[in-house]
Amino acid sequence: MTVFLCDGECEYSYDDLLRHLNQDNYFPLLKTHHLFSYFGNLVKALTNDVPLVLLDSDLSPAELDGVDESLVNQSIPLSVKRLPSMGEVIEALVHSTSEITMFTSGTTGQPKKVVHSIQTLTRSVRRGEKYNNQIWAYAYNPTHMAGLQVFFQAFENLNTLINVFNRTRSEIFNLIKKHSITHISATPTFYRLLLPYERAYSSVIRLTLGGEKSDGHLYNVIRQIFPSAQINNVYASTEAGSLFAAKGENFQIPASIHDMFQVVDDELLIHRSLLGQSDSFRFDGDYYHSGDLIEWINREEGVFKFKSRKNELINVGGYKVNPGEVENVLNAIKGIRQSLVFGKANSVLGNILCAEVQLEEGVRLSELEIRRILKDSLQDFKIPRRIRFVESFSLTRTGKLKRL
């Protein structure tokens, strides 16, 4: 039977999963580090049409807004559907009537609850013979939208998942080589942590980036590491699930849902019919403010690129600075693996621009050298006044850079 999941030294087949699904209990609120138990509980809930709350393994009681902590990790009896084959499991899953509750990542405050159906969670899943025999690197937190998108795409085609989330650079490359991984979906931060280029891995035939703004320099470097891979970019959110994909930096709104979007003051607004359900949503008529600022490339054809998150713009002496723009220029400097740009309060300017920079191993760069390079590409007010070198960055639960 096909391997379902490789997680560290443990390997589980789809037969193992089928046996797990036939056990007569489930956890409505499961908090665990054990990926097989988590996925088994998820599939069991969906195939038996019962509700489920997805909890991060490190959620604190203070973050469990509206959740009864005493019910966490408490199993309840369940008269499970006896499904003799994985084909029948998948069919039961895609027709599930379960409500799946998840939490936003909490990067801008208290995590908010959002309730989804299987239809919104699997909107982007593609099934068919050409999707058989794929081997996926699992590089996301499984309780958040991007992790669920990868899981459902792999699971509904009986593919193999290799857990690489929170692994080191050398461990990830070893797993890619050992398992001949063919597909990777991850944040730009994940791919930057794989730099610099040392050798190519030709087994990978498709890469997807999502969750953060990416840039042309990153595409060029990962093309060297994965020369056989087609590179796509995907837009998904906890509120809406997966909406559209891109090749390169430009996204295109599908014609079938073109009328479900508006752009007001450069902000992308999404029609309520594409969203899950949440008491925290605030609508402008029938539209939800995504907080994503975009720039039209071709308005008539619905082609655009992302500029930044609205709440990330930094006021520097009356100028609005997009930290992502500055990070793109920093990350393009040879020897810089990753950077983080942020504002620090200043009584005169409102904020001064600061940057933290992680260098590749063995590279030496001074603050003065970096500023000299930046002057060729950026206006003076966009050049950080303070640059600090760091060994690593803090990441959010979803594997993105944690902004200060």
UniProtKB/TrEMBL annotation:
<dbReference type="Pfam" id="PF00501">
    <property type="entry name" value="AMP-binding"/>
</dbReference>
<feature type="domain" description="AMP-binding enzyme C-terminal">
    <location>
        <begin position="325"/>
        <end position="400"/>
    </location>
</feature>
<dbReference type="InterPro" id="IPR045851">
    <property type="entry name" value="AMP-bd_C_sf"/>
</dbReference>
<dbReference type="InterPro" id="IPR025110">
    <property type="entry name" value="AMP-bd_C"/>
</dbReference>
<dbReference type="GO" id="GO:0031956">
    <property type="term" value="F:medium-chain fatty acid-CoA ligase activity"/>
</dbReference>
<dbReference type="InterPro" id="IPR042099">
    <property type="entry name" value="ANL_N_sf"/>
</dbReference>
<dbReference type="InterPro" id="IPR000873">
    <property type="entry name" value="AMP-dep_synth/lig_dom"/>
</dbReference>
<comment type="similarity">
    <text>Belongs to the ATP-dependent AMP-binding enzyme family.</text>
</comment>
<dbReference type="Pfam" id="PF13193">
    <property type="entry name" value="AMP-binding_C"/>
</dbReference>
<dbReference type="GO" id="GO:0006631">
    <property type="term" value="P:fatty acid metabolic process"/>
</dbReference>
<feature type="domain" description="AMP-dependent synthetase/ligase">
    <location>
        <begin position="102"/>
        <end position="246"/>
    </location>
</feature>
<protein>
    <recommendedName>
        <fullName>AMP-dependent synthetase/ligase domain-containing protein</fullName>
    </recommendedName>
</protein>
<keyword id="KW-0436">Ligase</keyword>
